[in-house]
């Protein structure tokens, strides 16, 4: 019984490797090893694990600038990733949820959202500028740069 915390790595690269190579990416604790990761994946997702590769990502050095003081330097935490290759035919349902959605690009989503906003605005009240002119307000008075009313 291994209770290892496996956090799936949701990125475009991880999704692509899961589709092409049947290899899934997880963030695992720094103390874990290949045997623990293999047992945890097999137990939690009921799949057969063929291979596990581990890599440690070093934390970046970061600076935080504050007003009127010296910058504070710090370090992000190190992270360990596990690349888990499954037997052919096995898959993990977390990543399958992404496949079920229709493939809609970011541009298509933006166009759809813009067209919805345009439809809402056409049914709403007229714009502020049109409303002012309809009420009979004239142009704004401007201050002249003359000599002061002689």
Written account of the structure:
The structure is a single chain. By secondary structure, the protein is of the alpha+beta class. It has a domain at 7-100: Alpha-Beta Plaits, CATH 3.30.70.330. 36% of the residues lie in helices and 22% in strands. The chain contains 5 helices and 6 strands, in the order E-H-E-H-E-E-E-E-H-H-H. The chain has a 4-stranded antiparallel beta sheet with strand order 1-2-6-3. It has a two-stranded antiparallel sheet with strand order 4-5. The longest helix is centred in the last third of the chain and has 18 residues, at 106-123. It is flat, with a radius of gyration of 29 Å. The model has no long low-confidence stretch (mean pLDDT 81).
List the quaternary state of the chains. single chain
> Distance N terminus to C terminus?
96 Å
Shape: flat
- The CATH architecture assignment of the domain at 7-100 turns out to be 2-Layer Sandwich
Enumerate the spans where pLDDT stays under 50 for 5 or more consecutive residues. none
Task: For the largest sheet, list the strands in their spatial order.
Answer: 1-2-6-3
């Amino acid at each position: 019984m291994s209770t290892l915390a496996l956090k799936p790595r949701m990125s475009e690269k991880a999704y692509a490797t899961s589709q092409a190579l049947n290899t899934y990416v997880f963030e695992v604790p720094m103390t874990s090893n290949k045997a623990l990761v293999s047992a945890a994946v097999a137990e939690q997702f009921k799949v057969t694990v063929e291979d596990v590769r581990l890599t440690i990502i070093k934390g970046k050095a970061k600076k935080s600038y504050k007003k009127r003081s010296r910058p504070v330097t710090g370090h992000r935490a190190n992270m360990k990733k596990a690349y888990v290759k499954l037997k052919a035919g096995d898959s993990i349902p977390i990543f399958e949820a992404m496949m079920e959605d229709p493939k809609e690009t970011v541009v298509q989503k933006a166009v759809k959202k813009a067209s919805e906003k345009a439809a809402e605005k056409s049914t709403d009240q007229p714009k502020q500028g049109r409303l002012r002119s309809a009420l009979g307000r004239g142009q704004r008075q401007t201050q002249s740069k003359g000599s002061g009313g002689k």
